Structure formats: C-alpha cells, structure tokens
C-alpha cells in the first residue's frame, strides 16, 4: 500500500490529512514513516481501517464506550469540576503497536533502570556510599522531603524497595525513547492497561487475527506471585492485603480491581491493627495476621506514629512491624527520594555507579534550579521550557512554557527564586504522534507510554503498558487527571 492510498482515507466526508511537512520541529509519528506511508507493523491495521470506513469505526467506538460504562471503568478529572469529575475512561480504539525488537531494547533498559534505582534506595537508607563517593551531592538528598530518615537501616524482604514501577517513556522528534519519570511510590494505571485490552478484544477481535499480540491480562497473577515471595512466613499461605485510602480516592477503581483479580483482601486503615510488632486484619472470625501489605496510601499518611500524627488513613505501629520483619510493605516507604524530579537527573550516574554499565535508555535533559547557571538560563528562557514542581505529580504544579502567558511565567520565576530545590526544568520535547479516532474523525494526537515493572524473584516487565493520549489537538498533557485518554498497547511476539 503506497503513500497515496494512505493520504486518501475518506468515508462519509471525513478525511485524514497528515501534518504539514514544513512544520518544524515535527513530532515523530508512530504510525507512518517519512514518506507518509504506514510503517510495516501498521500496514494490516491501516488496511482494516480502509475496509471498515468511518461508519463501522463509529459503531465500534460507541461499543467500547458502552462496555467501559457498563463495567464502571471510571477516572477522576480534577480540572473540570463544573461538569462533574467522575468520567467513563476515555479510550481510543486504534491500538499502539510496538515490534518485538523495539520492545526488547525497552525491556532491557527498564530492567537496568529499576535494578539501579533499587540499589540506590538500599544504599541511601544504609551506608550512603553514593554520597560519600561524591556521585550525588548530599544536599540534594537531605534537602528533599521525600528522604525519610525515619526508615534508616530497615531491611525490607530480599532488599527489594521497587516492587512495582510505572516508568513514563516518551519519544523525541528523532524517534528515540526517553525516560520522562520514574514512578516508584504507588504507581497507578495498570487496571486501565488491562481494561483497555479486554475492551479492544471485544470490539476489534478481527484485528487480533492479523497480529501475534503478547498478553497483559496476566499482570494480577504475576503481581500476586511477587507479593507472596515477600512473605516473612509461608508463601502459599500468606495473608495479603491491599491497603486503600477508601472509596473517595481517585484510584479506588484500580484498588478494588486489583484486589478482586488477585483474590486478596481490600482493606482500609481502620480494618488493621498492630499488636506486638505484628499487623492483624480484623475479621468476623477474629484477628488474622497479615504478611504482606500492598499499600496505595502515601508515606505521609501510612503510620501516624512515624509520619503525620493526624492521619486517619494509616495504621499506628505499621513501621515498627515492618522494621521487625513481621510484615512486608509494597512499595517500600521512602521510595519517593528515588523518583524525586531533581534526583531523576542523576539516574544515568547511578546506573554507571552501581552496575558499571552505560544506560540503555536516555533521560530528558534536566536543569537543576539549585545550580546558579542552570537557574539563570531557565529564567531567561521560560517560554521554551517545561518547569515541574518536584513535590507534585499528575501534571500539577507545571508550567508549559510555549503555551504559557507572561503572567504565568512571572509567577513561576517567583516560585523558583523562592524555592530553587522545589523545581526542575526541561526543554520541551515534542511527544510522538499517533493516529486516533475521536469525534468521528481521524487525527493525530501526542502520547506517552507507561510500562509496568514487577520486582519479585526477578525483574519482569509486563509486555504492554498504559499508552496515555493527549485528547486535545496540539496538547502535550496526557495525564488522565487533566483530561487525557488512552490506547491499548500491543507488543508483538517474535
């Protein structure tokens, strides 16, 4: 199929026009190459789109939305309170496809990164060799609110801190994958990855016959095996609890989904009690000792004896029980220092220091606002920068320089000068494009990719991930909390 056919999709009046070739810089397009023809691994999908036409795509889009609505697959949009914040998960039916060889490189790079970050956490909460050897400046660590001195010298089971990681990847204009963020605290989105696949198989079963797509539905079973591996008592008979803040949390759908799929108890802090440095679940048959807690509560609220004393979400005595080795906590408290946005810039050095290897995946260049030269350069070029608050996530506390106003830039400059450690800056990377079917039309939107990594007996990367899509034309904001959507992510078998 040639470039001409690719440009001539038309059904019911809708026509897809590729981006203007003269535009610069031009984002990398996942689906078509420089000649505007579909890449080889997308040819079968594009042929299917041409055969079905817009009317059938409309029907399948409605079917997908109805399936998600019926199953109660929702998310929270904090940026649109006027029209209600609870929404059906927005899903684009055209999948993102990644060839096996491309995925093999990503998989190796993700395993390398998670292994190095885990070694860093083990080091920083024990001997701190990386600071003594001058690889990281000590003030970078001690100046972060996410460095938890309260957990110094605790030995988690098997020395694993990074049990579950959701590493955000983007592609630059050259098509090179870059790590944007390491999410090592309570990463979310895996339930949507699975639901995307379930819905995609329901509405586009015929397309799966054209590809050998690796499974993602086994994630709960793989996670359960990793949790059992951490049990201080018998693995098979381990009592595992998913600790949730409750029904009003934005990610509660995911909490209940994972607990149900793994067959473990979904509990709130009030359902647990600590006695003799052990944690027990309150049941109708009395107290049952808990071996592993998959916690979806932030550090600050986890144990009022150690962190915030006013927390009613956590469990008093939980850290004492963890320190005593009577319960495993997933992910480990204190992980936030490893995905601090300022520490992020040093991950390539961590890989070299701990593993003696060159990084497989590159990071986005990052300017430290604590460095006078970096700070001066960024303040002079705010209109070209993305500025992020190191203590916030989900797209909050961020300045998108190219789309900002002079007043917003002035305010950000003031914030940076008041608290240099609280901000970092990065050049704007034109996130890659992918074809989407939205509102009855084909058009390109920016996207990223969040693969999920499980660290149990070994490090395993789930062959897929959550592809997040900026639903607005030209927007670079893919976070679901800011109105972004998603695609199913297909990793092809060899």
Automatic annotation (TrEMBL):
<dbReference type="InterPro" id="IPR025841">
    <property type="entry name" value="CP_ATPgrasp_2"/>
</dbReference>
<protein>
    <recommendedName>
        <fullName>Circularly permuted ATP-grasp type 2 domain-containing protein</fullName>
    </recommendedName>
</protein>
<dbReference type="InterPro" id="IPR051680">
    <property type="entry name" value="ATP-dep_Glu-Cys_Ligase-2"/>
</dbReference>
<feature type="domain" description="Circularly permuted ATP-grasp type 2">
    <location>
        <begin position="95"/>
        <end position="470"/>
    </location>
</feature>
<dbReference type="Pfam" id="PF14403">
    <property type="entry name" value="CP_ATPgrasp_2"/>
</dbReference>
<dbReference type="InterPro" id="IPR016450">
    <property type="entry name" value="UCP005522"/>
</dbReference>
